[in-house]
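MODEL INPUT / OUTPUT PAIR
PAIR INDEX: 1
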Amino acid sequence: MSDLFRSKSIESLQREAHGDHGMHRTLGPVSLTAIGVGGIIGAGIFVLTGQAAASYAGPAIVLSFVLAAAACGFAGLCYAEFAAMIPIAGSAYTYSYATLGEFFAWFIGWDLVLEYAMGAATVAVGWSGYVASFLRGFGVNLPPQVIAAPGTEYVFLTPEALSKAGMKAPAGWHALQIVAPELARLHVDVATLQHASAIANVPATIVVFLVTALLVVGIQESASVNALIVLLKVAIILAVIGVGFGHVKTANWHPFIPPNTGAFGHFGPSGVARGAGVIFFAYIGFDAVSTAAQEAKNPQRDMPIGILGSLVLCTILYILVALVLTGVVPYRSLGVPDPIAVAIDAMNIPWLAKVVKLGAILGLTSVVLVLLMGQPRIFFSMSKDGLLPPVFAKLHPRFRTPYKTTIVTGVVVALVAALAPIGLLGELVSIGTLSAFVIVCAGVLVLRRRAPDLPRPFRTPGVPLVPILGIVFCLYLMAGLPLDTWIRLLVWLGIGMAIYFGYGRKHAVLGQRASESAAE
């Protein structure tokens, strides 16, 4: 059993980081920060804010963001220490291998599949919602059968029906779950409306395939596209905040913390905690920065800048946007894949609606890019260590990217995005991310005790308090997630353990080296 906890030495990892790993070092602090902002600003603002506000926290989703940001801040400080000390692809997987051993490394590497791959699928679904809403504003209605997960019900609202009901929304197909409360309030019989059921989310698959192709071409090209998109979407978000505060109705903020419905996690203080657990997914962009460590020019200096800088900037924007959304429309109207579109439509500013929806589409594209960039690099590191087959470490002969794992990841993510609902995906990603952060925080504690004299270009302040607080906050947010999410996580980890004991443990490079040494 001792081989389960064999670990890689920090010295060997540092030699690997400075050796010829085949990837091009082209990313500086601006590119790394843009990767972080590109990953963070998107899912939380454009997708999950509305879901969590409508289902769990109400206007107090603002407090959920503060709570999630605190947990992220503690974890981010721990990530920064590791990323500067071990500038190698693999993120939390590599850090765990160096501190807690092989079993935990596999555990967290498999867990990161939930974080990156399922995260990309979640955002792709949100992207599809904004595309459908954007085109609807120009009178183009995508068939409801191809814009959502199977079984999602839609109703067609004609201009006449909207005028009669006094609803401010563009004519076309609308998700029944979203418009049903408003139709009931206005005494509109939904049975009299035209219905349709979704079969698969085609736009979500399209964006995944397009981004996958870009990532195969190269990291510098991908980073340049991402940086341009980041500039555009931050400008648009600032416009939403500036204009939106002029349309806020403070009555929508009362009660700020809606009373609990009697069930844990549905409003009240427990709803704030559950909301934080759900929207925690929105912060994983800073984590994705660490997966690009082997492509950074000066990782010891630039990785902490990219990780912590993107986290601080995005937290401020998240809180401001959450205040605007819940102030412009009642929070129960935000449980859609495109909550900002709902708020902008309510403001009745047609030009801003089109600009914001286009910005959301671009912004979510950059999130999909960042997440699909991170996942293959995790597999790359695991394959180099022998825990996955060698094919996962193959680099493209011209572009020097892990193209095979990028393509495989893209195909799987596209299928999931086509078939799974956004709420289920978001919760899975959150619990996977939180468990990864727990391991990273614990790793700092272990390594400070085991190797206190190792050179650390960036040192997490307040050790052991900061890592312990990171662990406590993350576990608290995990506890707020639904039981079925925990069950799905355990099933997923069970599949991962079967792969590890069936293949990874037998083929691990460390194990083979130990056997060779024993034979000598």
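PAIR INDEX: 2
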Amino acid sequence: MRVRAALLAAAVLLAGATAERAPAKSFSLPAADVTARVLPDGSLAVEEDITFSFDGAFTGGFREIPLREGETIDGISVQEGRRPYRPGASAELGSSGDPGTFGVAELEGAVRVVWHYAAVSQARTFTIRYRLRGLVVAHDDVVDVNLQVWGDEWRTGLGQLRATLLLPGGAPPGRSFRAWGHPVHVRGDVALTAGRVNLRALAVPAGQFVELRAVFPRRLLATTAGARVEPGRALPQILAEEREDAAGYERDRDRIAGALDHVGRTLLLLLALAFGPALLVLLAIYLIYGRERPAAYDREYEQEPPSALEPALVPPLLRQSPRVGALEFTATLFDLVRRGHYAAKPITTERSTFAGLRRQTIADLELSRGDPVPLAPFERPVAEVVDAVLEGGSHALSRFRDRIDDDRKGNSERFTEFKNGVAAAVRERRWFTSGGTALSIAVAAFALLSALLLWRGIDGFRPVAPRWGDILLVVLGLAAAANAVALALSAVNVRIWRRRNPAAQLEASRWEAFRRYLTDFPRLDEAPPAALELWERYLVYGIAFGIAERVLQGAQLHMPAALHETSTIYWISPGGDLGSGPSALAIGDLSSGFGSALAPPSSGSGGGGGGFSGGGGGGGGGGGGGAW
């Protein structure tokens, strides 16, 4: 038993290894020969000789022949050489059956023919015969035969195609006996002799149809029982269609050559198409929504804050954006200290530098709980962060970052709540008139237009003989995409599509004047304020503006010593400078430290004789096939 089990396991492993080494089977189509005979009643007898070159073992093949409304098919047979295949086999794709049999299945708008055989790495030629009724169109003057001798449903390219159309009489070539091959980008030719049309095509790619169209005198048909009858004379219209197809091909070539011959002009036009519409849309949105209306205000400086607006809301008013960050958070914290919600007293702390080889004494503030004051909704998350750090006691401001980082997830959520609260407060005040909706609609419209144009252009694009219309569709689609991207990027500059209302514009002008005053204050000769409350408001708004160091510099130059000794938010470094000293407690470093500690924790990991003419695609027959 052990020996048998070992042998069985070895056989399984050997079979698996052999299967892994076996290459995937495939087939190619070296040649196909199609003969279509117009019968005296107008029906069309078709015989297809299709050569398959197999690499590997194959047992089945199929053809699917499309049928349009009014067209029928009968007389289907399959043979190989002189050996006819027996009907009655399965017509399911991938099915098996006895070699030398075939089956037929009616599908919606098509008929499928499946044949069964046995072939291993060899070339085999199969012949499929059938008769089509209703494909040939009989007009009063001519009969129109428009047949796809090779369909676009084949997923494998064809090396060489030969097609022959045989007429019921021996009419010589002339005005009423003409033939064309379609489409123009297939390499091939068409030749006429008495009662016969020959077509050749080489290297037909996968998914490409080849069409043979011919007209001949109506008198050559004995009856029209197998044709579709359409009264009226058709020859002038058919000749005009074919001439227009050929002329269209020439026009496309001339237009493409003209664009390539004038590269500079073409590039300028492309740039205009890519950005011109977006610039016009932006200009319209700016004039309607973005251009600020002048305010009746002409002062250069405001020596005091223009209103009691919370420091976290002033930057959004000035930059016309509700987004806030660490500066506004820090300013709100210092404003809560200024208002007494938290008590602060100057202290000194030691900090090690140079890997612990040196210790420095730095100025610091010690924060503790104060007397609660009413808080705005967006101030509550700031207070929650500070309360969590203090935990009922007191703590040095220089250690806040480490304590905030201990509960990074929870404090990050509070920071997000603070930012969302500021945005809500900005919306409640209705400061702005916004064109954001109009801009979004324009971006969506250009993006949708781009998708539609690119889909249409790429779907019909022919690399061998491109049509001018398809190139235009692709170019316009890319231009629409460029316009959409340009409009989307312009959303970053909110001043293009958002402006302040008249009251907000006046208030913003005053706050801008106050910011200029704080920025220029250290070099001004004006008398400094004498009230501590105003000095502290200077620092709070200076933090929000991002110019706290300028305010501290002004305080160092102008603030009376008696005031800074009683202040809760100014402090003195060992060197005597207000709030400067070692950089550990500089306002900018403090704010950036808060921003880093309040950021969300990281959670992911990195990582008529002659050639072919244009047009075509209107012929019957065609379809595709394959093998397994």
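PAIR 2 NOTE: The chain is about 40% helix and 25% strand.
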